[in-house]
UniProtKB/TrEMBL annotation, chain A:
Family matches, as InterPro entries: 2Fe-2S-bd, 2Fe-2S-bd_dom_sf, 2Fe-2S_ferredoxin-like_sf, 2Fe-2S_ferredoxin-type, Beta-grasp_dom_sf, Diverse_Oxidoreductases
Keyword list, A-Z: 2Fe-2S, Iron, Iron-sulfur, Metal-binding, Oxidoreductase
Keyword Transferase found: no
Organism: Prauserella alba
Protein name, entry field: (2Fe-2S)-binding protein
Automatic annotation (TrEMBL), chain B:
Bias-annotated ranges (Gly residues): 791-803
Keyword Translocase: no
Record-given protein name: Molybdopterin-dependent oxidoreductase
Pfam family, one: MoCoBD_1
SMART domains found in the cross-reference section: Ald_Xan_dh_C
Annotated organism of origin: Prauserella alba
Domain of life: Bacteria
């Protein structure tokens, strides 16, 4: 099947097998290896990206479902060398060690902050429940997300993530927020 | 002396590593794609023990994109290749051959049986379904007691036994203490318990992956490994390759926790296949594959007795372990429980000690090092039984510990298990922890809740732990029959422009070596933190090393860096003296500058580096280089310690445990970077708490791993863990010039018994004196209401909780 997906601001048209998962399309066809695969039961969240402004586990979306859509990965967050506030906060708060869960964790954190610009600790923990980290014990991740919240105006994300009309729809994919 | 700039060591530097990792500019092994690369997929045995009577690969070979299909006999016709076990713990240890792909029999569910090589990973995976294997079932051996019972069926028939080895330490024989039987028979109190260390999965987030490129004379192998140097040597030895024609690269590695301290059948098979085809080959596992085929950890049955006089003075300690190795021995295998032998006596003065350990084969995935490797098991048992002894004596558990621990003025102290603890201050760490925790206040609340019969009971758990890390003095490893030494290598390259490259043999996979090593070198050489690059993980640039495990990177590898820096300065001093026409003895080195004492004449080390590069004007007989290397072999282990306190609320109606507060005060010696230390503590605590409350690798009676996905194996999420209060006290290690001890495993080692002690303490008035881990709501409830503290034997049930579905059995079935 022929699909067109805009990923991190670039439009790509490709023939894909119907069974191809979005994450495999991103990694193998488009070279977007910043997004990773950590499990095969959609538990770990390492592959989380934004599809049309909403976080999804890209292992749970078929590439063909993204046809015509706009995807933002962790590689598309920084602008002109300027880190996204959540990226900066992860660094400042030592919210990563091996860094394998980090792309998904950052993408989910941005989604969480879009829904709740000023989450308390409990809300952050709840919002990240679908993303596993084996290194940090989550404490510094929680700290980073709350730190980022303080640096972001309500609901702010990079322009690439703003959906036309700005309306967020609930898809039930990725995260429990 | 001129005033020093603010030292880098001790600063909470944000990590150099992070910028790439937070922007997705990563180099995981699975990201690597080479021209002409083909993909390998492995067919794994669905059955735990069977004879392979036939394998038909013809249909698979006809599938689209399939280039080749191999069986074990195809890869190793002579049946000679076996994965290495580097630690035969006794001269008569039984070590079965572990092939790349099963030959003749399969010995655990998940063992690889055949390999498909195809154009794409998906095509390789598709073709697996077309391979037809005939299995003739053999009796399945599961559970330690079953495996060692008389007449038990055998995992490896030709061995005649399921026991691999028996390793004994006896303080009477060693001359380090008395006879334990004698001590126990003459003591007022003897407490005996059987504790089960359930089987765990390391669960590093990055699944394993390997890429082998055979297209140059020197074969290159990328692997998601903790041990590129060991892998290079072992792959050469195992497959009979010339070692100089193997290059191993560990690029970005997504966690290990001991789980990637291995030389695997998958890595070796990829090499053989790549050589056969003359093409680059990639293998990346799925999470479901990791769960059954990467080694597990823990899995011991611990019989432990402690004796004491009425006043609480410990008189003897006796430990008998059965340790489940799974179907084969991994690279460290039987050595894991042996490491624990030195830690059961912990921080206490124990006059008589006997330890025995029998390593046992079962038809399960093999076990090997997992964060702490032997020391968490030992710490759990001693810290649990200290609480039981306190209960028996009617003493406060902290008072009992205090009565028996080594006092701060008694260091250095040689223990009953013959280790010499160089430094420590258990009183200081405990005092700080008690104050942060509000021990007295929580004890009061506990009494109130008990008095009013509150549904939610409060318990306090203590763990005053120590560990041995910085593995290890080579001569000690030699005395334990370990196959290698414990030194580490470092090299420093002074570049003409004044920048510095530091080569380290330690191989990070999330720890932050690049940052910490830069801080160390910045102070040693007086160069800028940002002017230093750390090279690691590629045997071509870092040709020598013993890699990262056992909290050894800083305490051994970091010291090698210091020693290399000292050599750079010694070389530079000669040249600086020559350039300034001064005597070497008159030079002071500080802040990166050599200054002629009593003058303002000075030259920077960067200027010396440039002068050496030009080499126009060097003193007679001086080589034109400042580059230096050092190999450091530690004289002793290091001994971090700490006091951990846990307050747990237990809902006696539901069995639900909630950790109300967790305080850890650790003494890890001098700290290079407090931010990294705090992160290591948090992550370590999470893994130790997860063992106490959530995680268990569960087998059904057929030997199928039923907790084989992240839906069933309960790696805790952010919702499942509390916020920790972590703090430190500091006594410098005297065994190394930085005074560092190591922090990688401390949290995991200490926290498990603190949590279990807290839960048992909360419900002890219900007659509960133990609950088997993980402390699922079902198990806690049953202990409270039915007095049933065992889980029903190994393999009977999973931990229950987040991903479990069968509440009748407390877990996934």
């Amino acid at each position: 099947m022929r699909i067109t997906v805009t990923v991190d601001g670039t439009s790509y048209t490709d023939d894909v097998e119907p069974r191809t998962l979005l994450v495999h399309h991103l990694r193998e066809k488009l070279g977007k290896t910043g997004t990773v695969v950590g499990c095969d039961t959609s538990n770990c969240g390492a592959c989380t990206v934004h599809l049309n402004g909403q976080s999804v586990k890209s292992c749970s979306v078929l590439a063909v479902q993204a046809d015509g859509g706009e995807v933002t990965t962790v590689e598309g967050l920084a602008r002109d060398g300027q880190l996204h506030p959540v990226q900066q906060a992860f660094r400042d708060n030592h919210a990563l060690q091996c860094g394998f869960c980090t792309p998904g964790m950052i993408m989910q954190s941005i989604d969480l902050l879009a829904d709740n610009p000023n989450p308390d600790e409990e809300a952050v923990r709840e919002g990240l429940e679908g993303n596993l980290c084996r290194c940090t014990g989550y404490q510094n991740i929680v700290r980073a997300v709350r730190d980022a919240a303080g640096h972001m105006r309500p609901g702010a994300g990079p322009e690439a993530e703003q959906v036309a009309g700005g309306e967020r729809t609930t898809t039930g994919v990725g995260g429990d927020s | 002396m001129t005033a020093m700039a603010e030292p880098e060591v001790g600063r909470a530097r944000v990590r150099k590593e992070d910028e790439r990792l937070i922007t997705g500019r990563t180099r995981w092994t699975d990201n690597i794609a080479l021209p002409g690369m083909v993909h390998m997929a492995l067919l794994r045995s669905p059955t735990a023990h069977a004879r392979i009577t036939a394998i038909d690969t013809s249909a698979a070979k006809e599938m689209s994109g399939v280039i080749a299909v191999y069986t074990g006999d195809d890869l190793d016709p002579g049946g000679e290749v076996g994965m290495p076990n580097a630690w035969p713990i006794t001269p008569d240890q039984k070590t079965p051959r572990r092939p790349m792909l099963a030959q003749g029999t399969v010995n655990f569910a998940g063992e690889a049986v055949a390999a498909v090589i195809a154009r794409s990973a998906a095509e390789a995976e598709d073709a697996l379904a077309e391979i037809d294997v005939d299995y003739e079932d053999l009796p399945v051996v599961l559970g330690l007691d079953n495996a060692v019972a008389d007449g038990a069926p055998l995992v490896h028939e030709d061995m005649g036994t399921n026991k691999s080895a028996e390793w004994i330490f006896d303080s009477a024989a060693a001359g380090s203490g008395g006879d334990v039987q004698q001590a126990m028979s003459s003591s007022d109190v003897v407490v005996t318990r059987r504790f089960r260390q359930q089987r765990l999965v390391p669960a590093f987030m990055e699944p394993r992956s390997v890429v082998v490129d055979p297209t140059a004379p020197q074969l290159t192998m990328w692997s998601a490994t903790q041990v590129p140097h060991i892998l290079k040597t072992m792959v050469a030895m195992t497959l009979g390759l010339p070692e100089h024609q193997v290059r191993v690269i560990a690029p970005d590695v997504g966690g290990g926790f001991g789980g990637k301290l291995a030389v695997t059948p998958e890595e070796c098979a990829a090499v053989v296949v790549a050589q056969k085809l003359g093409k680059p080959v990639k293998w990346t596992e799925s999470r479901s594959e990791t769960m059954v085929s990467a080694h597990h950890g823990r899995d011991q049955m611990q019989d432990i007795s402690i004796s004491a006089s009425r006043d609480g003075t410990i008189t003897g300690l006796k430990v008998d372990l059965l340790a489940d190795m799974g179907a084969y021995l991994g690279i460290v295998g039987g050595g894991v429980p042996v490491l624990g032998a030195f830690m059961f006596n912990a921080i206490y003065k124990i006059p008589a000690y006997r330890f025995s350990c029998t390593t046992v084969f079962t038809n399960t995935t093999l076990t090997d090092a997992y964060r702490g490797a032997g020391r968490p098991e030992a710490t759990f048992a001693i810290e649990r039984i200290m609480d039981e002894l306190a209960a028996e004596l009617g003493m406060d558990p902290m008072q009992l510990r205090e009565k028996n621990w080594i006092k701060h003025d008694e260091f250095p102290y040689t223990t009953v298990s013959t280790l010499t603890y160089d430094s420590g201050n258990y009183e200081a760490a405990t005092a700080k922890a008690m104050q942060l925790f509000d021990y007295d206040g929580l004890r009061r609340e506990q009494a109130e809740r008990r008095a009013r019969g509150d549904r939610v009971q409060l318990g306090i758990g203590i763990s005053t732990f120590t560990e041995m890390c910085g593995l290890a003095p080579s001569r000690v490893l030699g005395s334990l029959d370990y196959g290698a030494g414990g030194w580490e290598h470092a090299a420093i390259r002074m570049l003409p422009t004044g920048k510095v490259e530091v080569v380290t043999g330690a191989s990070p996979h999330g720890q932050g070596h690049e940052t910490a090593w830069s801080q160390i070198v910045a102070d040693q050489l007086g160069v800028g933190f940002d002017d230093i690059e750390i090279l690691h993980g590629d045997t071509q640039s870092s040709h020598k090393g013993l890699d990262t495990y056992g909290s050894r990177s800083l305490a051994v590898g970091g010291i090698a860096v210091v020693k290399a820096a000292e050599k750079v300065i010694a070389k530079a001093r000669k040249v600086a003296a020559h350039l300034m026409e001064a005597s070497e003895d008159d030079l002071e080195f500080a802040d990166g500058k050599f200054t002629v004492r009593g003058t303002d004449t000075s030259t920077a080390i960067q200027d010396v580096a440039l002068a050496v590069f030009a080499a126009h004007d060097l003193p007679e007989g001086v080589e034109p280089t400042l580059d230096s290397e050092a190999v450091y072999d530690p004289e002793n282990f290091s001994f971090p310690h700490g006091t951990h306190l846990c307050a747990a609320e237990v809902d006696t109606d539901t069995g639900q445990v909630r950790l109300r507060s967790y305080v850890s005060v650790d003494d890890i010696g001098k700290v290079i970077n407090p931010l990294i230390v705090e992160g290591q503590m948090h992550g370590g605590l999470a893994q130790g708490i997860a063992q106490a409350l959530y995680e268990e690798a569960v087998y059904d009676e057929f030997g199928t791993l039923t907790s084989g996905t992240f839906a069933d194996y309960l790696v805790p999420s952010a919702m499942d863990l509390p916020s920790f209060t972590t703090d430190r006290t500091e006594t410098a290690a005297t065994s190394n010039p930085l005074g560092v001890k190591g922090v990688g495993e401390a949290g995991t080692i200490a926290s498990t018994p603190a949590v279990v002690n807290a839960v048992v303490d909360a419900v002890r008035h219900h007659g509960v004196d133990d609950i088997e881990m993980p402390l699922s709501p079902m198990r806690v409830w049953r202990a409270v209401h039915k007095g049933d503290t065992a889980a029903g034997g190994p393999g009977a049930e999973a931990g229950g909780g987040l991903g479990s579905i069968d509440s009748a059995h407390g877990g996934a079935q």
